[in-house]
Write a structure and sequence with these properties.
With about 230 residues, the chain is α+β, with helices and mostly antiparallel strands. It is about 30% helix and about 15% strand. Strand 4 and strand 5 form a beta hairpin.
Length: about 230
Amino acid sequence: MNKDYTNEILELALSLGAALAGVADLKLLEKLKTHPPDLFKNFKYAISVAVSLPRNVFELITRESPGELYAHAYKTANILLDQLTFQISEKITEYGYKAQPIPASMIVDRNSLMGHAPHKAFARAAGLGWIGKNLLLITPKYGPRIRLATILTDILLKPGKPIKNQCGNCTKCIEACPSGALKPSNFEEYPARREDAFDAEKCYTRLKKISRLPNIGAEICGMCIKVCPIGK
């Protein structure tokens, strides 16, 4: 009988600094667009890990600038996540299974602002949270004040289950978006089309401008995260 490694892997993730960790069944994500298209080949599960960001940095965000402290927290979280997923992947390999870490923050398609695969999709399938009207993962404990990374693997794990969307009638993120990139929308899982809820071009135009501000150096904004009441 094959061993279930769920407890070992999730406990390892938490011991290495993850605030949240869960397992997604890739069967739930068969229609997910990935780069390359066959990214899921030879894998059965995704391990989703999240680190929380210092909450006070979001209170310093303004419409003019996300601030140096948020930029630093964002970059530091990405580094921590990449180190964390590498260590977990190494342990899985030691057990004799395959593991492929997906970078925490790497854009491979500028037109769509997409990475190799959306970390929030794995996290939602793992039951860590739901997709909010800002199209970010919203977790019950931290709201959207997290960063995510993912490991694809074939090790035997027990997947979690998606949880119900809890945004309700709240539209604070849409109202706060400085670029007008977020659009009024209602959906349980995902919008039928991303463009129905989000204008990527408007968002990226602002992010490029912000990245050139002194001591920022990252394509970030954070206003829709700052105003989210979940996790406050």
